[in-house]
Design brief:
Rossmann fold, four-stranded antiparallel β-sheet
Length: 347
């Protein structure tokens, strides 16, 4: 239940993150578990630094040091960022750099209602729940029935089931359901063909409009999605790629020459080629290798309903029909008056 709020001490049923020598492991805190034969045995977690008896960490403070049979580690409070690094992979997941951009682009605040299509391993779902709780709601869908069931069990075990609804549904064919029509503030699609879900996103977003975001690994998917968004009346379309790079800061010593000799430059004062002193600077260096491609984020805004209806109205015809002879009469050009009362035609 440790994902719901921050606590000081570990309780039975919590999920904790075990940190050891730059390695992270997620552990469910249960004193006993069932083995392959269905028998209850003591829960002992095996690591490269020896065994950890899980019952020993119950009551320990989060962030404290725990002893293992061949070393020690630290037990940390779980967060969506740490969970994305330790969760069991049922599908390819979205990591923190992309998740942070998604949350910002969707304009989510506590109380928002957001729809996610493509639950997968639940990495993004945990971050969405943290952003919209306590009065918001996340509706997440997955076309794979077994994955949707596992995700629902996981949300219940983590104590966030009251903020998220996980369902098995093919949203590309069936949409998000009539009960969500006009209720969502934002829609996120992580689908092989996100352009097929654009019309359903329009139906789900509120009359006041909302934000849309899709995650696609291929640029061809982005192109088709952008065309569908334009046809549906979305505005402010943008596609971006998030690549996280770490700048390493270090100190470097640089030789410095004394340039006082320039005042008396001549044959009697030869130039000294040696540095007269050194100075230390703090410098930043980019890494030698850059992170690889993950996917493209396509974001857009659906304007309010009254603006959508206004944009669909045909433009007014400037030519007027003559009822007597059927000829068309052009609308006179607008006129303006200058300071000398002379008429000026505005072209």
């Amino acid at each position: 239940m440790s994902f719901n709020n921050y606590k000081e001490k570990i309780e039975e049923g919590d999920t904790v993150i075990l940190y050891m020598s730059n390695n992270l492991y997620a552990i469910d805190v249960h004193p006993v578990i069932k083995n392959k034969k269905g028998e209850l045995v003591e829960n002992v977690y095996q690591t490269t630094f020896g065994a950890l008896k899980v019952r020993n960490i119950i009551g320990a403070e989060y962030g404290s040091r725990v002893e293992l049979s061949k070393g020690w580690g630290h037990v940390l409070q779980p967060t969506p960022e740490l969970w994305s690094l330790t969760l069991p992979h049922r599908t390819q997941i979205i990591y923190t750099p992309d998740i942070s951009m998604i949350l910002m682009q969707l304009d989510l605040v506590p109380g928002s209602v957001v729809i996610e299509a493509g639950t997968g391993s639940g990495s993004l779902t945990h971050a969405l729940v943290r952003r919209v709780r306590p009065s918001g709601r996340v509706h997440t869908f997955d076309f794979h029935e077994h994955r949707a069931a596992l995700a629902a069990e996981e949300f219940h075990a983590h104590g966030i089931a009251e903020f998220v609804t996980a369902k098995h549904r093919d949203v590309c064919q069936s949409g998000f359901g009539e009960e969500l029509n006009g209720r969502a503030d934002a829609v996120f699609l992580d689908l092989p063909s996100p352009w097929t879900g654009v019309a359903h996103a329009v139906a789900a977003l509120k009359e006041t409009g909302g934000r849309f975001c899709s995650f696609s690994p291929c640029i061809e998917q982005v192109q088709r999605t952008c065309l569908a968004l334009q046809q549906a009346g979305f505005e402010d379309l943008a596609t971006m790629e998030v690549l996280q790079s770490e700048v390493r800061v270090s100190r470097r010593t640089v030789p410095v020459r004394d340039l006082a000799f320039l005042r008396h430059k001549g044959s009697s004062c030869p130039v000294d080629e040696k540095a007269s002193s050194t100075t230390s600077y703090a410098v930043g260096a980019w890494p030698e290798s850059q992170p690889g491609h993950t996917g493209y984020l396509t974001v857009a805004t659906l304007p309010p309903a009254f603006r959508r209806e206004k944009s669909k109205k045909p433009k007014e015809v400037t030519a007027q029909a003559n009822p007597t002879n059927g000829d068309t009469k052009a609308t006179p050009e607008p006129m303006a008056v200058d300071g000398n009362n002379a008429e000026i035609t505005v072209k």
